């Protein structure tokens, strides 16, 4: 599968620093103080699998940006050390993210930054599969000729559920870190739903807090390429006065062919490691 992708992260107009981090082209972009940072690339996942991901840190001051950066560093290690990651069973993914969760909580205890945590959304483009994973309220969408569809389910609830009616603020029910050992991770295999020309949108809530799904669809539909789509989405979020950092990755499927090689399996000796 050949994909084109573009990612952008912006501090925005209302935050003193950027707590979002972005993992694109094997590099982590974190802690951008001013303006925006963008990264782009083309990859044949049949030869070289790829993870693209965003993390939205929380905890105040520098805690959020540390949590989001550390989480993506661990994700980058997963991408390098476990091959092919796409064949790892769901329980294996759960165990890996549980380990990351524990390490973030331990770092918080050691540094006194209690409560630091982060959301995470990402996509793995492998040799045979395309997987989407998430924790928290950062989202993934699938845009095709049939329209736009939200892939992920937010791990959050609004305060209206709790009886409030003055705010639409959401409360995260699952994240990496945050001082809790209870981690909910969702994993979606979207391989069979993809076609050439389709686009995948990964984004933090700085975008979706101010841009509704119909407008997301319109921007993705009208953009001539992934760079234009990302730029327009980030610009629109700022025009609509988002009060959060905004991070966006758009991936377009240019060629759909996947590897027909036999799936990788653990040998008996490897299972014991």
TrEMBL record:
It holds the Pfam family PP2C_2. It comes from the Bacteria. Residues 5-253 form the PPM-type phosphatase domain. InterPro entries: PP2C, PPM-type-like_dom_sf, PPM-type_phosphatase-like_dom. One of its GO terms (molecular function) is protein serine/threonine phosphatase activity. This is Protein phosphatase.
